[in-house]
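I keep forgetting this: the sequence line spells out the residues, with the fold written below as integer tokens. I include a record here:
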Amino acid sequence: MINAVLVFNNSGQPRLTKFYTQLDTSVQQRLISEIFTLVSNRPASACNFLPLPPLLTPQTTTTDDHHHSDTPTQITYRHYATLYFILISTSTESPLALLDLIQVFVEALDRLFSNVCELDLIFNFEAMHACLAEMVVGGVVVETRVAEIVRGVRESGRGSVRGKEDAGGVGLAGLAVGSVGRGMWAGR
């Protein structure tokens, strides 16, 4: 199960925070800050998986090592251009599948916005939320086909995309596809 989806810029400003499990607002704020610090301080050569910080790690009061499958345990992230896409999930989710889910999310946003950039996400946050809602419902992945996600967002009208003033930016998905020097994402 996916417990949360977070998107930050390089300065640590949240661009999307979607929690699928109930947490107090103060815990959410501390978690957001702690996760950004952990992810942004990692070297580019580090892997894209981290254990969950102690803030949400379950406190064991017994000697029983039984681990609940619905308890969040891992962080999976990817860094594109100026944005970090972060998923908090349980141990039952495959980290590689979550990396692929992040890629699908970015590709869907790129198709919705034609070379998506951070400004698109700021001014069209409804479309970003609608895109995520087409992919994940209640923490469960329900759709991974980019064309179906984009079609669902456009047909629902929940994510009307407004025009952007600065169309000269490089799209995030364009940074994730191709070879080095021809649009390869430079992040982790």
